[in-house]
Amino acid sequence: MRNIVILISGGGSNMAAIVKTAKRDNWQAHYGAKVAAVISNRADAAGLMLARQQGIATQVLEHGSYSSREAFDAALAMEIDQHDQPGQPALLVLAGFMRILTPAFVARYGGRLLNIHPSLLPAFPGLHTHQKALQAGCRFAGATVHQVTADLDQGLILAQALVPILPGDDPHQLAARVLTQEHLIYPRAIAAWLENQGAEA
Ligand code: GRF
């Protein structure tokens, strides 16, 4: 069994889309994989409730309770590693997880750490991507699923989706349009990752 651990900080709509697709497409039978846990760095993340409703174990690790970034990441790693199975380390999925991870943490999960970013990378890494795309006069925006490396939003691109920018769009309207595509490409990219792992095993 390959356990999937999802890290969130907020609404958790990407997490919910992944959970829904995993059930609908029976990832357990196809890939021997399941969403085992959802971890949030904020106790008030709305996504925690969504996860609990789906019967998924949740855990809160409030980053403010730790003395340093390193201490928080070490505690997080301990939680995640509980979901490793013999020969099958957990797949770690960042879904609106608003924390910069330390290089040591990223190195530990290298190759099995995925993120979604609401822009067409390599354009507009970091925050406020929709506002930046509008200000730049882009005609298209989108989302990118990528592997996480020590350089923010720069790992290998696994999937992208494109959406038009419409006249009069504000950042909220654009974000909502991009988010609907995120919900499609993230589960699909995870399924492809699981499929490839099976092929390599
Ligand atoms: C998504 O747009 C994600 O790409 C970004 O933050 C948002 C999180 O949304 N990093 P949700 O928590 O999955 O609803």
List the helices and strands and how they pair.
Elements: E1 2-8, H1 13-24, H2 27-31, E2 33-40, H3 47-53, E3 57-60, H4 69-81, E4 91-94, H5 103-108, E5 113-117, H6 129-135, E6 140-147, E7 157-164, H7 171-200
Parallel strand pairs: 1-2, 1-4, 2-3, 4-5
Antiparallel strand pairs: 5-6, 6-7
Helix pairs in contact: 1-7
Bound molecules: 5-O-phosphono-beta-D-ribofuranosylamine (GRF).
Sequence stretches where pLDDT stays below 50 over 5 or more residues: none
| Helix proportion range | 25-40%
**Which strand order do you get reading across the main beta sheet?**
3-2-1-4-5-6-7
Number of helices: 7
State the secondary-structure class. alpha/beta
Order of helices and strands: EHHEHEHEHEHEEH
CATH architecture field: 3-Layer(aba) Sandwich
* Overall body shape: globular
How would you describe this protein?
With 201 residues, this protein is an alpha/beta fold. It has a single domain, classed as Formyl transferase, N-terminal domain (Rossmann fold, 3-Layer(aba) Sandwich). 40% of the residues lie in helices and 22% in strands. It has seven helices and seven strands. It has helices at 13-24, 27-31, 47-53, 69-81, 103-108, 129-135, 171-200, and strands at residues 2-8, 33-40, 57-60, 91-94, 113-117, 140-147, 157-164. The protein has a seven-stranded mixed beta sheet. α3 (47-53) links the parallel β2 and β3 (57-60). α1 (13-24) packs across α7. The protein is globular and about 50 Å long. The two termini are 13 Å apart.
Features:
7-stranded mixed sheet; 201 residues; 40% helix; 7 strands; alpha/beta; single chain; Rossmann fold; 7 helices; binds 5-O-phosphono-beta-D-ribofuranosylamine
